[in-house]
């Protein structure tokens, strides 16, 4: 049966990099992949056209597809709006609406780019960490939330970090299952030394490991220590399990170890058989948007993750990843990697490997 990939190009460099992923998908379709590619408005582009960052129609189409590939959302022109009408709210709404509670963020260092890292080559060469970040709970979604004005005129801002047993278990299960396909090691991060909910996270993850995953080597690390260990000796990590907030922060840190934020894809998945949401880790980069110089690799690698986890085509995922690696090995570089290629020319270099 024909699978459907819904593209949500979004804002800033989103449409530019997604166009390259679309060309890659088109090439695979020409070679026999049974895939229909569609597109829908999202983020700031949707605010301009429809008044909201995520329309009911776009969410319905996302839920009806097999995989969604997002470009990027946000930009200075929408930054003054209230939180619930910003492009970012559309992304949180999409993640929640699709119930994609596990965010897979690989931080892999391509051999050709080891010099691009701010860390010495010996610390990053061969680096291959997989973050599993909880994505639909925690402090980004908890209530109460908001800002109120107190009788004495002060303002009081509140956001709530909250997790239930089942929310922790379902994302931990995905981390353990993926660890079984790798080195069988998981490090879980929290702040159980100061947060009750952090200690509970640790206890629930440990209990699940003891009950169902005795073969997995699980350890726990305070999130602040992990921030330090990631720059001290990043190769000690294989799979890292985090809540939503710590995962947001620590995965950006790990991404930068690999040399460029422009290289890294991500996958947000939920229960088996449900569509996944794929997105580059980088943002909309308004400073370079419209100039055709953005690095399309993260978008293409996100497409590869969609092929692997949602479109039932793991061999094609390998092929796309190999094509990106071959392009890098041949010296193809966009400006963020120290080169001069345009987005489209980098796309040509990747397509040459397909
Ligand atoms: C990310 C981003 C998002 C997040 C924003 C854009 C809502 O930082 O995907 O890491 O905080 O999750
Ligand atoms: Mg982030």
Label the structural class.
Answer: alpha/beta
Shape: globular
CATH class of the largest domain: Alpha Beta
* Total beta strands: 12
In CATH, the topology of the largest domain is named Isopropylmalate Dehydrogenase
Give the second-level CATH assignment, the architecture of the largest domain. Answer: 3-Layer(aba) Sandwich
In DSSP terms, counting alpha (H) and pi (I) runs of 4 or more, how many helices? 12
Strand arrangement, major sheet: 2-1-3-12-11-4-5-10-8-9
Radius of gyration: 20 Å
Taken in chain order, the helices and strands follow as EHEHHEHEHEEEHEHEHEHEEHHH
Provide the helix percentage.
40-55%
Largest sheet: 10 strands, mixed
Number of individual domains: 2
Mean pLDDT: 96
Give start-end ranges of low-pLDDT stretches.
none
Give the name of the CATH superfamily of the largest domain: Isopropylmalate Dehydrogenase
Distance between the termini: 24 Å
Bound molecules: 3-isopropylmalic acid, magnesium ion
Please report which band the strand proportion falls in: under 5%, 5-15%, 15-25%, 25-35%, 35-45% or over 45%: 15-25%
């Amino acid at each position: 049966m024909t699978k459907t990939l819904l593209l949500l190009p979004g804002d800033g460099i989103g449409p530019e990099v997604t166009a390259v992923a679309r060309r890659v998908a088109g090439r695979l379709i020409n070679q026999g992949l049974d895939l229909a590619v569609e597109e829908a408005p999202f983020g700031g582009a949707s605010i301009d056209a429809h008044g909201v960052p995520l329309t009911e129609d776009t969410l319905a189409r996302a839920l009806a597809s097999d995989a969604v590939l997002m470009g990027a959302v946000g930009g200075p022109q929408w930054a003054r709006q209230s939180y619930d009408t910003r492009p970012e709210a559309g992304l949180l709404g999409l993640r929640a609406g699709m119930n994609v509670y596990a965010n897979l963020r690989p931080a892999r260092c391509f051999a050709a780019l080891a010099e691009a890292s701010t860390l010495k080559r010996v610390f990053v060469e061969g680096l291959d960490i997989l973050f599993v970040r909880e994505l639909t709970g925690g402090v980004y979604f908890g209530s109460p939330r908001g800002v109120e004005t107190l009788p004495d005129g002060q303002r009081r801002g509140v956001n709530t970090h909250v997790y239930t047993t089942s929310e922790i278990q379902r994302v931990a299960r995905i981390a353990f299952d993926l660890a079984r396909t790798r080195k069988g090691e998981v490090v879980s991060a929290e702040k159980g030394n100061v947060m009750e909910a952090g200690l509970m996270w640790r206890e629930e993850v440990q209990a699940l490991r003891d009950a169902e995953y005795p073969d997995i080597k699980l350890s726990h690390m305070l999130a602040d220590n992990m921030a330090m260990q990631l720059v001290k000796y990043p190769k000690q990590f294989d799979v890292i399990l985090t809540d939503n907030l710590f995962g947001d922060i620590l995965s950006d840190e790990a991404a930068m170890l690999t040399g460029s934020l422009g290289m890294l894809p991500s996958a947000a998945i939920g229960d088996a058989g449900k569509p996944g949401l794929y997105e580059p880790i980088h943002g909309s980069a308004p400073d370079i948007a419209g100039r055709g110089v953005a690095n399309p690799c993260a978008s293409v690698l996100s497409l590869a993750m969609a092929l692997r986890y949602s479109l039932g085509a793991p061999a094609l995922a390998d092929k796309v990843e190999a094509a990106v690696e071959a392009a890098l090995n041949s010296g193809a570089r966009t400006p963020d990697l120290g080169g001069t290629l345009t987005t489209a020319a980098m796309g040509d270099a990747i397509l040459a490997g397909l």
